[in-house]
Amino acid sequence: MSEPEGTGSVAFRRLMGRWPTGVAIVTTREGEQDYGLTVNGLLSVSLHPPSLLVSLGDEADSTPVVARSRVFVANFLTAQQQPIGERFARSMPSPEKFRDLPFHRGTTGAAILDGSLGALECRVVSEWRASDHRLFVGAVVAQELGEDLAPLLFHRSRYATL
Asked: Which structural domain, as residue segments, surrounds residue 32?
């Protein structure tokens, strides 16, 4: 059954596709295993104290790990890092996502991707369900200012740059 043009998820998806967003990789860690996924659903919540909200789908393998570990890193991608964004958007085992990818670790122990615009390391301070997603608010515990390059964007269901 199709939905009328002006209502429901089809119209919503078309409209949201017109809204450009930045692209980030959210990483986390449990034991010796790294996890990560491509996101464009994040926003600055507060400057005092610095905090960030990230929206993760229930089906993502990273979501329950963030819920258990209570830490995540938002790695903001440069336009040159589009292949990394594509890799982390695919459904594949986590070790494959991180294979041959240069990164280092910071305060939380989660992966900080080398060459990004920067990264915000967060400790989860609140979490709630919203439809088929979990929303996590993280208090920023450390930050890195990375490369001063053009950001990677997502617009009309594809990657874009400035």
From this structure: 22-161
Structural domain tally of the chain?
Answer: 1
Collect all residues with Cβ–Cβ distance below 8 Å to 40 and sequence separation of at least 6.
Answer: 21, 22, 23, 24, 154
| Amino acid making up residue 28 | T
- Report the alpha-carbon distance of residue 66 to residue 112 in Å, rounded: 15
Residue 161, CA distances (Å) to 3, 78, 103, 113, 152 in order: 32, 9, 23, 19, 5
pLDDT along the chain (162 residues), means of 10: 62 86 97 96 95 97 98 98 97 96 97 98 97 97 96 92 87
- The CA distances from residue 34 to 29, 98, 151, 160, in Å, are 5, 8, 24, 27
* pLDDT score at 5: 57
Residue 152: both structure tokens together: 């990677």
Beta bridge partners of 124: 138
Given this model, what pLDDT does residue 143 score?
A: 97
| Any domain includes 131 | yes
Residues in the chain: 162
Angstrom distances, CA of residue 81 to CA of 14, 26, 29, 95: 26, 14, 21, 19
Q: What is the pLDDT of residue 1?
A: 42
